[in-house]
Design goal:
The chain is of the alpha/beta class. It has 14 helices and 15 strands. This is GntR family transcriptional regulator.
Length: 492
């Protein structure tokens, strides 16, 4: 315990004053268990008698409580004497990276998070809840625990997990790879960050989809990339709008574009591969939920038709399993193998081994694929429930983008501007419904109201109830916003 004796008077009173100061400042809040008298005496280099006398004095003053067989605990003071929290000292950014990060990242941003007090929320970042999967995961963690070595994990990832991932993606996604090509990372967010470190210098041109996954965009901007937004239509990225000058990196979600749901057509896949070859650039393929193909056969990954080794394939278990697991992987082009391993080593020495070992078993035993099949079936039901309910209850007021995979749809509220969309979202939250705008998915947001409507963590009953509430919010907001004009028109 970090206590400083002031040197004035008896030792036990010095210790009493030091402990009082720690309690008053909040360093020892109510309920804190103090070290045993022998341990504290050893740490402070005083006699145990001194510590016992100090504890007795504090108990007499009501600041400590002794519990038989347990120890001494701090009592919360009757009248709080803690100092008010010290405001964070403002300093100028100490690096160009910090300056960009401050401009781009708001730690208080609630985009995509569950809001308190909501009856329903179309939160798009949450995966499907599966009690059987939770049980299987806990079982595999318990089995793996006795066999995981306590030293640092391999930076590239456990061989058992890399082999399991390799077999899975070659069979289900058509990838061309070996276990040596797999790098285990802490989720897709780290994969994108490592790609930015390895491939992008400040000022380099990077092509992104418009709209796009905002997490990738923010990371690239923090690294100083010059982003070039290329529009997306029903066939995915408009390859005819790729820049004439060479780009260092092209970031894509070709199997299920985020957020529109478009699938990149074969002809455009060939175009973008040719563009990367001509530029001597690279393609980052973010396959964040491509395994949840619901109404058709899974689309093979872009990497599966890459003949030049220029595609970095990024996969994640955040959507298919649990976001809290923080596990994902990169299928590395062979020419970048050593660079990515060095970047991963510098980032964290390696991803936690216990979770890797448990996941390897989950995949190897077939439990992971069984979960994917069951989850896909349930997601189909929820998506159909969402789309049917919106068509039935909202009619022409809401337009849905076609989507055949994943756990969300993109909806446009007809005739509403972006500013009116903000008002609608605020109104819905007042009525207990969480709505989420798509504005942050754009470099240049359009002046219309678009909503990301997630359904992965909702039951079909919840989906229908939420849509009913959504339709009611549209009605009441329209009356609030245009009621006076409607009443005036009616009176005339």
């Amino acid at each position: 315990m970090d206590l400083v004796l002031d040197g004035n008077g008896p030792r036990y009173m010095q210790l009493v004053r030091a402990l009082k100061q720690a309690i008053a400042s909040g360093r020892l809040p109510g309920g804190t268990r103090l070290p045993a008298s022998r341990d504290l005496a050893r740490d402070l280099v005083v006699s145990r008698t001194t510590v016992v006398a100090a504890f007795d004095q504090l108990r007499a003053e009501g600041l400590l409580t002794g519990r038989v067989g347990s120890g001494s605990y701090v009592n919360a003071p009757a009248s709080p004497t803690q100092r008010p929290p010290v405001a964070r000292r403002s300093v100028l950014p100490q690096s160009a990276y910090s300056r960009r990060a401050r401009e781009l990242h708001d730690p208080d941003d609630l985009s995509g998070r569950r809001l308190p007090g909501m009856r329903h929320a179309f939160q798009y970042a949450l995966p499907l809840v599966n009690a059987a999967l939770n049980t299987a995961w806990l079982r595999e963690l318990g089995r793996a625990a006795p066999y995981v070595r306590p030293n640092y994990p391999m930076p590239q990832g456990l061989p058992s997990l890399r082999e399991a991932i390799c077999k899975h993606v070659t069979r289900t996604r058509g990838l061309q790879c070996t276990p040596q090509d797999i790098l285990v990372v802490s989720g897709a967010q780290q994969a994108i960050s490592l790609a930015a470190r390895v491939l992008v210098d400040p000022g380099d041109d990077v092509v992104i989809e418009e709209p796009q996954y905002f997490g990738a965009r923010t990371i690239l901007q923090m690294h100083g990339a010059n982003l070039i937004g290329v529009p997306v239509d029903a066939e995915g990225l408009r390859t005819d709008r790729l820049p004439n000058r060479p780009a260092k990196l092209v970031c894509l979600t070709p199997s299920h574009h985020f957020p529109t749901g478009a699938v990149l057509s074969l002809s455009r896949r060939i175009d973008v591969l040719q563009y990367a070859r001509q530029c001597a650039g690279w393609i980052l393929e973010d396959d964040y939920d491509g395994e949840f193909r619901q109404d058709a056969q899974p689309v093979p990954a872009l990497q599966s038709i890459d003949r030049d080794g220029r595609v970095l394939y990024v996969g994640s278990f955040s959507k298919t399993l649990f976001p809290s697991m923080r596990l994902g992987y990169i299928v590395m082009p062979s020419g970048l193998h050593d660079d990515f391993l060095a970047a991963k080593w510098a980032a964290d020495f390696g991803t936690p081994a216990l979770e890797q070992a448990a996941l390897a078993q989950l995949i190897t035993t077939g439990a992971y694929e069984r979960h994917l099949r069951a989850a896909s079936k349930r997601l189909v039901e929820r998506r159909h429930a969402l789309c049917d309910a919106i068509v039935r209850q909202c009619g022409a007021r809401v337009t849905l983008r076609p989507s055949h995979a994943g756990m969300h749809v993109l909806a446009e509220v007809t005739g509403l501007s972006a500013a009116e969309g903000v008002q609608l979202i605020r109104h819905a939250r007042e009525r207990g419904l969480g709505l989420y705008p798509a504005t942050n998915c754009y470099l240049d947001p359009p002046d219309r109201c678009e909503l990301l409507m997630g359904y992965g963590a909702m039951s079909t009953r919840d989906v229908r109830e939420a849509v009913t509430l959504f339709a009611a919010c549209l009605d009441s907001w329209a009356l609030r916003a245009h009621g006076p004009a409607l009443r005036l028109a009616h009176s005339r």
